[in-house]
């Protein structure tokens, strides 16, 4: 069967929808139903969230509340049997049709008596409302509170917490399957285990449990840890050594929540040192990057809080309660609408183009050994003004040579040799890293290149990699790549240490990297560093002029702040450079013509092949005659405006466009073979949210042209509903006779009923 979606089968489900990234305040829980609280738990089951326990500021609670997310109403959950004793800082998880509550802190907080941690386990069955306490055989976990709990492989997993005297980092598991023996197993953990901690959240995704921050005393960090259930192994997710200009992780905190949805982890609230932030942080499991989620314009954003609780139902997160300013307990409920767009693959697509080395049209001859490194003119010219000028010079030199040898520079492209650009003073390994940044906006200094087995790429703190990054910095300065300069400086500042600073100083002086040299000198003469460094054996072998400079600098220290030159935000991103390349800079480097309804549109083969398997397959199999490709999407020729939107998406992943363009491009991801259907998802959302009486005529025209019957019907209904406004639009007079008749028929149908 043909895998290309045709216009006849294009359908969009129009109906109720939610604005993505919108915070919405839900009805508050009345006091007669349940008290305001914090340190409680929230779980989700079907179309409701269940709140258990916590404290209201004067006493512990053990009531069970239920919020129906469809009815938006609160009530007490039906319950029989003996519930757990009032408690807070317990855990609650859902398995099948039951909620399991483990541990927590119990007693009378008002009189400060009988306060103790628990290690009991209670099951609440949603279908019957029955509470049951489990009884165990053998050893049980130490009693604890403020721990983490998760369900995986039909088992309950308990991690860390506080036992009343010390923080823990042990792990226990027990089967939740009916009929299995109720025996706790202590888990033998391996790998980079988190420090002892409490008041942290956990989230389960991709066969793993994730732990972020929490109270760990002097060891508190903002690290994200991943526990691989099958291997029972911990990993600290470390991305500090990767140069990419990504936002930093959230500040260290405790009392926050973390939930998983789609490919993301979402962190909200908590106490970050002395503040209660209300930013929503999002961690992308695919790209391993943190971002702050900006709320929609019509959001009712909750205030900062800690010891609240959160759960996910469908495509929304619900948070309830918590402690807000002045130690006040909250009874508020908020709903946050997630977005589930497929990830942006722009960087990955261009990275694959570099690694595959297909369709290369330039060869850089690097270093004294004249190492040949192939690349793509379009990508390099887009990112570096310096290299763009060198490519022009090489092109002019080649044309002059062809005229001298052949009498003409008019030679078929397929017969031309690769353009050669010589970079004699560059280090091949460093230039490879710069190329990787050019294509992907990131560098991982520890990544081994396929053409080297040099062990110095293994450790980001290794002297070899630090020195190599200085070569990368030198090239960034030479190539006028400000953002890469900034990333290199931040990397070097973070990795230069007692062990490598003297070698880094020597190399900086040799390469005339004055900024790095000054940083090294400043590092050496610090009070806390000076004696250890000058008494080392490495100092004895340092060049005498540098020794003298260190001693003089120690006697007359400088107060200049070297980091100010590289404040964040300088330079341009891959997206910004590719946008400028598409709009203006890249026109002189075009090597393919896209013919849209007789109108030529210059483009670049490398970019098209990187982003679209349709063009990659075409360029692999045969080059179009005269380098001209006729453009269509299936059997339909898109409008000029919609194709311009498509080109913006291909070149720099822009998804902003008028709704009528979204309709034309809805099937483009399938036809052109994009890596995923991200564009299609945005097109659908754009149509759902932005069809108004002001643009409905354009939508009607596009739907008719694409034979998208459901969207055409939707547009006609909207026209009928707002006909008094639509009738005054100048565009109405330009409609075809057939569409005007369709509108008249829709109006007649309305009055008929």
UniProtKB/TrEMBL annotation:
Keyword entries, A-Z: Kelch repeat, Repeat
Pfam families tied to this protein: BACK (PF07707), BTB (PF00651), Kelch_1 (PF01344), Kelch_KLHDC2_KLHL20_DRC7 (PF24681)
Keyword Repeat: yes
Matching PROSITE patterns: BTB
Domain BTB: 360-447, 590-659
Entry keyword NAD: no
GO MF term (any one): actin binding
CDD domains listed in its UniProt record: BACK1_LZTR1 (cd18505), BACK2_LZTR1 (cd18506), BTB1_POZ_LZTR1 (cd18308), BTB2_POZ_LZTR1 (cd18309)
Gene3D superfamilies hit by this protein: Kelch-type beta propeller, Potassium Channel Kv1.1, Chain A
SMART domains linked to this entry: BTB, Kelch
Name this polypeptide is given: Leucine-zipper-like transcriptional regulator 1 isoform X1
């Amino acid at each position: 069967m043909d895998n290309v979606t045709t216009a006849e089968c294009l359908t969009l489900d129009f109906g109720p929808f939610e604005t993505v990234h919108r915070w919405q305040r839900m009805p508050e829980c009345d006091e007669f139903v349940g008290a305001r609280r914090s340190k409680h738990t929230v779980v989700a089951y079907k179309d409701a969230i269940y709140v258990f326990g916590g404290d209201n500021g004067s006493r512990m609670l053990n009531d069970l509340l239920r919020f129906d997310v469809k009815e938006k109403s609160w009530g007490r959950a039906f319950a029989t049997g003996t519930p757990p004793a009032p408690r807070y800082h317990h855990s609650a998880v859902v398995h099948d049709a039951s909620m399991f509550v483990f541990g927590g802190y119990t007693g009378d907080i008002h009189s400060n008596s009988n306060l103790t941690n628990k290690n009991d386990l209670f099951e609440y069955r949603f279908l019957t409302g029955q509470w049951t306490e489990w009884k165990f055989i053998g050893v049980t976990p130490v009693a604890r509170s403020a721990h983490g709990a998760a369900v995986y492989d039909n088992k309950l997993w308990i991690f860390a917490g506080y036992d009343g005297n010390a923080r823990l980092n042990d792990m226990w598991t027990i089967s939740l399957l009916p009929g299995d023996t109720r025996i706790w197993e202590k888990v033998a953990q391996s790998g980079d285990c988190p420090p002892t901690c409490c008041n942290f959240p956990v989230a389960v995704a991709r066969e793993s449990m994730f732990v972020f921050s929490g109270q760990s005393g002097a060891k508190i960090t903002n690290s994200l840890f991943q526990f691989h259930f099958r291997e029972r192994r911990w990993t600290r997710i470390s991305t500090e050594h990767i140069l990419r200009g990504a936002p930093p992780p959230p500040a260290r905190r405790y009392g926050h929540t973390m939930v998983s949805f789609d490919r993301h982890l979402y962190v909200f609230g908590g106490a970050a040192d002395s503040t209660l932030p209300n930013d929503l942080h999002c961690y992308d499991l695919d790209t391993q990057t943190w971002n702050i989620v900006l709320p929609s314009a019509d959001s009712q954003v909750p205030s900062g809080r800690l010891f609240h609780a959160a759960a996910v139902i469908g495509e929304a997160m619900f948070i309830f309660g918590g402690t807000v300013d002045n130690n006040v307990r909250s009874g508020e409920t908020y709903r946050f609408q997630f977005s589930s767009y497929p990830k942006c693959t722009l960087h990955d697509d261009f990275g694959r183009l570099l690694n595959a080395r297909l369709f290369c049209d330039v060869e850089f001859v690097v270093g004294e050994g004249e190492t040949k490194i192939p690349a793509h003119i379009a990508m390099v010219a887009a990112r570096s003004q310096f290299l763009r000028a060198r490519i022009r010079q090489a092109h002019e030199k080649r044309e002059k040579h062809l005229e001298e040898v052949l009498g003409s520079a008019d030679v078929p492209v397929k017969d031309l040799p690769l353009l050669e650009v010589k970079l004699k003073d560059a280090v091949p390994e460093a230039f490879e890293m710069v190329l990787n940044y050019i294509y992907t906006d990131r560098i991982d200094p520890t990544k081994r290149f396929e053409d080297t087995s040099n062990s110095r790429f293994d450790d980001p703190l290794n002297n070899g990699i630090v020195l190599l990054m200085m070569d990368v910095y030198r090239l960034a300065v030479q190539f006028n790549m400000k953002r890469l300069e900034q990333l290199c400086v931040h990397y070097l500042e973070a990795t230069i240490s007692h062990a490598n600073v003297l070698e880094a100083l020597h190399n900086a002086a040799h390469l005339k990297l004055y900024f790095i040299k000054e940083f090294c000198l400043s590092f050496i003469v610090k009070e806390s560093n000076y004696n250890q460094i000058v008494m080392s054996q490495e100092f004895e072998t340092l060049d005498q002029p540098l020794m003298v400079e260190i001693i003089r600098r120690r006697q007359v220290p400088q107060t200049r702040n070297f980091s100010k030159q590289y404040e964040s935000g300088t330079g341009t991103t891959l997206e910004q450079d590719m946008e400028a390349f598409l709009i203006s800079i890249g026109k002189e480097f075009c090597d393919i013509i896209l013919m849209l309804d007789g109108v030529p549109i210059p483009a670049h083969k490398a970019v098209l092949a990187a982003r679209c398997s349709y063009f990659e397959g075409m360029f692999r199999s045969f080059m179009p005659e005269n380098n001209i490709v006729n453009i269509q999407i299936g059997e339909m020729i898109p409008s000029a405006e919609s194709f311009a939107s498509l080109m913006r998406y291909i070149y720099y992943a822009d998804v902003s466009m008028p709704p009528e363009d979204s309709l034309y491009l809805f099937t483009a991801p399938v036809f052109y073979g994009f890596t995923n259907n991200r564009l299609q998802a945005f097109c659908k959302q754009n149509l759902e949210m932005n069809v108004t009486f002001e643009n409905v005529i354009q939508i009607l025209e596009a739907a008719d042209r694409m034979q998208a019957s459901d969207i055409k019907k939707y547009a006609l209904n909207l026209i009928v509903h707002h006909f008094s406004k639509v009738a005054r639009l100048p565009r109405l007079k330009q409609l075809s006779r057939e569409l005007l008749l369709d509108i008249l028929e829709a109006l007649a149908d309305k009055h008929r009923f």
